[in-house]
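Put briefly, the fold is written as integer tokens. One such record reads:
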Amino acid sequence: MVSRSRPRLYIFNENDIKKGIATDIYFLRTYEILKNKGLCGVRVRYEIHAYSLPKGYRWAVFAGLEEALSILEGRNVDVYALPEGTLFKEYYPLMVIEGEVCEIVYLETAILGVLRFASSVATKAARIKKLAGDKMVLFFGLRAMHPAIAPALDRAAYIGGVDGVSGAFSKEILGVEPKGTMPHVLILVFRDPVKAWKAYDEVMPPEVPRIALVDTFYDERYEALLAAEALGSKLWGVRLDTPRSRRGDMRALVEEVRWALRLKGYEHVKIVVSGGIDEEQIAQLRDVVDAFGVGTAIACPKPIDISMDIIEIFDEEAGRWVPLSKRGKWPGMKQLYRCKPIVEDYIDTPDKKIVCSDGSEAKPMLRKVMERGKVVVDLPSVDDIRRYVLDQLRYVEL
């Protein structure tokens, strides 16, 4: 048993992950056996794919590619992948890693970890945004996961389509301006919501929207009117974070608050709802709410079960790649040909000419993104990836 006199954070740094320290013991044992038997130089092709999706899901979002490439950077491998943000279904090839087996084998844990995590979060964010439509979705879920992965969490949620993330670091790391409202602690310390809202208005720069939290001490309708009277035209909106024990019929509560604001001439004040928001609540409230704050539902989503398996081994004597896989997997190198996202896609061998139903030629989606450990494409920004996801969402249904 390990004993310590001081507490520590149980995290790896970036270099530890790239070295392959974050791995399962059986991969290190496999590496030692292959090395001992002179088989480290066997060239293989690993395919990364999802052979199943969560129940009721028709598609998922491929995310985490940039981090996977960072793990592989500097190694003698070639990588083929779908563009990050691509919508996919079961059996689609997402990524292929080609190289000597000992360059790759003990990195599987870390590669799958970043891809599963990011794809699961991005998929849930995309589902939420698809339901919300033109209503704003803000991601407030950092507290639901380990702080070591906060940047990866905000990145995956933003890629999936949310309109804003709350991480204070997001501007520096992701290039995304953080968004948020105010916490209950601010109001509780002032012991008076009006004093807290006015202090917020006095201290915060003008470009920060004035969104008042209106459920701390009194009835939501009463506090919403107090906020409107206190801040007037400067008030962008009010946020209802009503606890479950007081919630009742949330739609009726929102309609009551909106009616009261309109009756007093505060039609400009928008309504933000947060607290336990998931797909069901989005569907129920999207026509009466202006924005949603979503946390745990996106941060702790149903997992996208991405796997990594050998599909080909290079035969040195024959000088060619030989399809080979374990039972239940599809052997051989594949290509995804796209006509319309999910609606009309084809999986076939590489270098095929596939004609779409409208007569156009299908686009091959897997492309070489890394050669001998060096990235050979321009990596898109998170804004570019987000736009790509939102464009595809136009073609699909939940």
